């Protein structure tokens, strides 16, 4: 299975999503995570489709990959469709595979605060939280609710202070940090709605 290039000991962020479409808010999360978590690399995992969402307006994977690569242009960021290549439907499958294959790398799961709100609905979500350290980045509309979500309450004792975010990759899971700061008001849903209105 061809994975993005890496080496033992590397600190790698995993940022998954449908990216339907990718936008500047996604790039902001990726670039801020690289810097604040002190990562060597960040892999953007473009999924075949979110099991919790309708696929009626889901653009083809190849189209989403191309657009994501264009907006994520950065020497430390790699955009990949390994989940589709592996035939995985759920994030826990990806996490389980990468933990086994890359046992000598330090992996961190990254997601927006809007995803944290319904993280407890993800298949085997506790396996994800207890398998990798997680970084949650602030997103408009979810900034106040995410830190009190069901998952946040479940792992409240494992929350890492924001000023210690650079040590997250070195910590044993469960461990998570909530990153506040610059955020973008762009959303994939709003962009799709605008496109539909224009047509």
Helical amount: 25-40%
- Tell me the fraction of residues in β-strands, as a range: 15-25%
Order of helices and strands: EHEHEHHEHHEHEEH
Low-confidence stretches: none
Spatial strand order of the main sheet: 3-2-1-4-5-7-6
Task: Report the end-to-end length measured between terminal Cα atoms.
Answer: 40 Å
Query: How would you state the average pLDDT, rounded?
Result: 91
Biggest sheet statistics: 7 strands, parallel
Total number of helices? 8
What are the main properties of this structure?
about 35% helix, alpha/beta, globular, seven-stranded parallel beta sheet, about 200 residues, single chain, 8 helices
Please summarize what this structure is.
The chain has 199 residues and is of the alpha/beta class. 33% of the residues lie in helices and 17% in strands.
